[in-house]
């Protein structure tokens, strides 16, 4: 019996020992992870709440939880996943095993392949560098990445992979948060292969003894030391964290000193034969785009404490038949440049090989012309009177002729004129000519007098209107369709984009104009602005030109009366100009904010007024006297020609009629002589 009691006692003591050992083991695990969650309610559960508050402050709703050592962080992973899920976060979990699994990494399809992929700088060696399945597609939405135990080889490899130039996953819309309990772990980020750019949002959360410290990290350049800035110290609650984040504001405002970094850039000089200096205001119309953007980029370098290694090209860059680009875009395609010192057109084919930072100016290209004289497009001899006036004049002619014929028939006096002479009298009176017959009776003289007086008023009004119409411009060309039907020839500024945008246009009117008046004329329609604007000034000529360049030439070479009547039509809308950068450029957001700041403080507006000429105003208000040419007199000459031809025809008929009988007798006698 005693032995049985002893055995039971030993068994109970063994069970108690096992329970104590199990509790001790749990306490050890909880102690190892007490900075995650305190089961005694002593405040350790503040960390998950802080993480939720941190990502909510940044507007993040999608989260990637990366746990490289699950054997140590299994409790943390479960608790964090539950905490974020309960707070309506979409959470994806990556472990060391899932990162090494490359079977489910799908290669991009043919439509997703880049025109020119960036050169690969990540070199796998299967020891410290190995390929992983961590792929972050480009997205406009915000995303959070939470990395546990970032000093492990798995986590450091992930950071090297993500910061490689061909990936550049550290952008402004990806909020990286690295957790640690040892402040010395930050030194591992001094690795030169882990480039934390100024555009990044990477923070360290150091948590220990129920307090947390949030640290902002970045590097000016890949070979620059790591820079640290404390956002909040001794944070105990989510309220403390939110207050620290609000006080800190935007991280990029603390990163505006690039410490003299040198970037490879390029500028386009399209007309090197006439280009003098980038600051030459006397030739504003030569390479205006480069000049107007130069001061903005110089101010950008001054604000960010950086400098440029500038290359010069003569072409903005357009796609070639083999798929490559020439000029400036060709350098971007070969990754020879970091960004350009000027803005270029934002086009879909260029977006594939570069990114656009911020818009600067808008360039307008249009067909400039002077409205042709009214005499060139209309019969000015029919314009002085309206239709009802012409009908009244015709009625007057008929009525005068009829009255004069009645007077001749019933008059008791004899006249030396026939009935056909009345037509000569009426027509001569309307043309202010005299009459060759003397009229003796008073009734006929009254008819002659009233006819001449009425004709005098009509002739005076007609002549005055003719003088005004000869010097008046027309409004016949109001659209591209009118221009296509007009007698004006068309020239085009010799730039590549004019040739491209005309051929790419889908507007039927623009296409018709191009094929009818540009493509059909050959390459000689492409000319320099000075030549094209001079031809436009002298004759019936329209010129497709950058309106800013055209305005400058008009201001310099046109007289005040010649500025009146200038018209412009835009056959196509040019896209906005924007500063291009290479793909995955790690300073893109920093540049964007600086350029937009220049617009907000009117620096962009100042440069636009300085370098881009405005449309010249017509100060005189009317056109000057112009001499009369063949064009203006063509209808008068046409009437004269028709009259001469008719007269000659009647002359031949009279000769034939006069000698018809003699010819008939000769011809008839010749037939009688025949046997």
TrEMBL record:
Classify the protein's membrane topology as the record does: Multi-pass membrane protein
- Signal sequence bounds: 1-17
Which GO BP terms apply?
detection of chemical stimulus involved in sensory perception
What subcellular compartments does it reside in? Answer: Cell membrane
Where is it mainly found? membrane
Indicate the segments forming the Ionotropic glutamate receptor C-terminal domain, all copies: 388-643
Spell out the molecular function terms from Gene Ontology.
ligand-gated monoatomic ion channel activity
InterPro entries given in the database record: Insect_Ionotropic_Sensory_Rcpt, Iontro_rcpt_C
UniProt keyword terms in alphabetical order: Cell membrane, Glycoprotein, Membrane, Receptor, Signal, Transmembrane, Transmembrane helix
The residue ranges crossing the membrane are: 389-410, 446-470, 635-657
Instruction: State a GO cellular component annotated for this protein.
Output: plasma membrane
Please state which protein family the record places this protein in.
Belongs to the glutamate-gated ion channel (TC 1.A.10.1) family.
Q: What is this protein called?
A: Ionotropic glutamate receptor C-terminal domain-containing protein
Gene behind this protein: Dwil\GK12623
